[in-house]
Amino acid sequence: MRRCLLAIFxxxxxxxxxxxxxxxxxxxxxxxxxAMAEGRVTSRELVSQxxxxxxxxxxxxxxxxxxxxxALEQADALDRERKAGKVRxxxxxxxxxxxxxxxxxxxxxxxxxxxxxxxxxxxxxxITTLLREAGAVIVAKTVMTELANWVAxxxxxxxxxxxxxxxxxxNPYDTRRDPRxxxxxxxPALSTGGSSSGIGTxxxxxxxxVGTETSGSILSPANQSMLVGIKPTVGRIxxxxxxxITADQDTAGPMARTVxxxxxxxxxxxxxxxxxxxxxxxxxxAGDTAEGPRYISLLNPRALKGARIGIPRAFxxxxxxxxxxxxxxxxxxxxxxxxxxxxxxxxxxxxxxxVDPADIPSVLAPRVDDNLVAWGVCxxxxxxxxxxxxxxxxxxxxMKRDFNAWLNSLGDSAPVKTLTELRLWNLAHTQAGxxxxxQSNLDISDEMDLERDKARYETDxxxxxxxxxxxxxxAAMITHRLDALLFPGASGASIAARPGYPTxxxxxxxxxxxxxxxxxxxxxxxxxxxxxxxxxxxxSEPRLIALAYAFEQATKRRVPPKL
Length: 563
What we know:
Helices cover 34% and strands 12% of the residues. The chain is of the alpha/beta class. The two termini are 25 Å apart.
C-alpha cells in the first residue's frame, strides 16, 4: 500500500494514548526545541504525534505520498544524541516533510508520476543530506502536482495538486470537492495552489516542509494555506537531486507557519558552502554567507521603520492596457483590494515609507516586444512549434535539457531513460491512470531540438531576464530606492521567477472563494486565505525576511484550519 496508514496508527496509538505533555499542533520549531531541551518531550514523541496526525487526517486531506518507515528509529537516535550532549542545531529532532520530487534514499521519489511509482533513487538530494545533518526527521513526502505541473497544459490543463499517483490534495481550509459540473472530477472546491503542497504544514502534520518552485509553486500553495513561504534566489539552495523543469528558474524553498520557522529552514537548506554539484550555488555567496543563525539574528520587529516599500499598481493591483490586445488585463477584485489596502496601512503604521505607485516599467511599455504582460510562457498545444513566436520557450527547452540530464544521473536504475520514453510509457499506460489530462507540456518539450533551437532559447531567455529583471523589478527598485515591492497574494510570482529573484509571502487575510462559473447557490464556500508578498532583487533574502517578520509580528493574522 502507498501509505500503510493503519499500520502507522497502530504503531503509534499506544505511545500517544495518554495526553502528551507537549502538542505539535501549531507548535513552532523554537517551541519544539525548548520542550526537548527541558525534557518535556522527546523527538520520538514529536514524530509519533506527527504520524498519528497523518493517520487521523490523511483520509480527508490526502497530503502524503509516502511515509518514512524509519522515522521513529531516526528520532530515537537523535534523542540519544541529545541525551549525550550533542544537539546538531535548531532542527534537531524536528519532524518535517519534503515534496516528492526531492530525492530520498529511504523513501520513493516519484514526482507523482505513475512511471516512477515506488522508485527509490540511488542518491539523496543535497538538501536532504543537509536536513539530516541538521537533525531533522523527514517523516513524509508530500503530494504535488505531477512533475511540478509540467505534464498537461492546454487544452486540458492539469489541476493543482493532482497527480496520477496521489490524486487530488485537499485544502484544510475547505476539504470539500468542487461541486460544479464542469469541474467535478475530484478537485477541491478551494484550490490548494501548486505544485508544492502546504496541506500538511497548515494542518500541523509536521513542523514545516520543503517545496520547489519554477514559477509560483512555493508562493501559490503558501498563499492558499495561510503559510509563510520563502522562494529563494535561484542558486541560493542546491537543486542537485531534485526532479527539474528548467535550471534557469528551479529552486527549492521552505514553507512554514511562521517567518521564524521558515528562516530556520532556509538557513539549513542553504548550507555553509556552495554545492559542487550545482554551480549556481555560488550566486549569493559573495558578500552574503547567511546561515540559519544569521537569518534569525535579523528578525527585528522594528525592521519596517524607514523601509521603502513600493506598490506596483499597474497590472498587479489595477488593470492595464496591453499592446496588441483589445481589452485591458490584470488587477485584483474589491475584496482583495481591501486586504491590500489594510496591509499597506499596517506598513505605514509601522514606519515604512510607501512609494505608490512604483510601477514596473516593462508592464507599461508601449511596444509589444518590450512589454512583459504580452510575453508569456509557451505552454500546452498553443505553445507548440510553429505557434510559439510570441512566448518564451525557456520551460519547454529547459525540460528537454534538464529532465534528460536528471534521468541520466540515475544510471541503470532510471525507470525510463529519456523524456521520449516517458511520453511513450504514459501513452501505453493510460488505462492504468497515466496522463488523465494529457501530456501537452511534455509533448512540446520533447519536440525541442537542443542544438537547432539553442539560439532561439538563448534569445528568449535573455528577453525573460530583461523584461522581468533589468527593465522590470530592478528598474522599479533602483528608480525608487526600494527595499521591497509588495505584491498581492502570489501575483508577483512569475515576474520574480524569470530572473530568479526572491520573495517572502506572509499570511494576512481571507477573501471570498468565488470562482467563475460560480458554485451552486446551495454550496456555502468557505473563504480563501490571502497573503502579502515582499519581493526584491537577487540575494536580498536577509532584508526581505526581516521585513516579513516585522509585518508578521505587527499583524499575527494566521488562523489555523478547523479539522
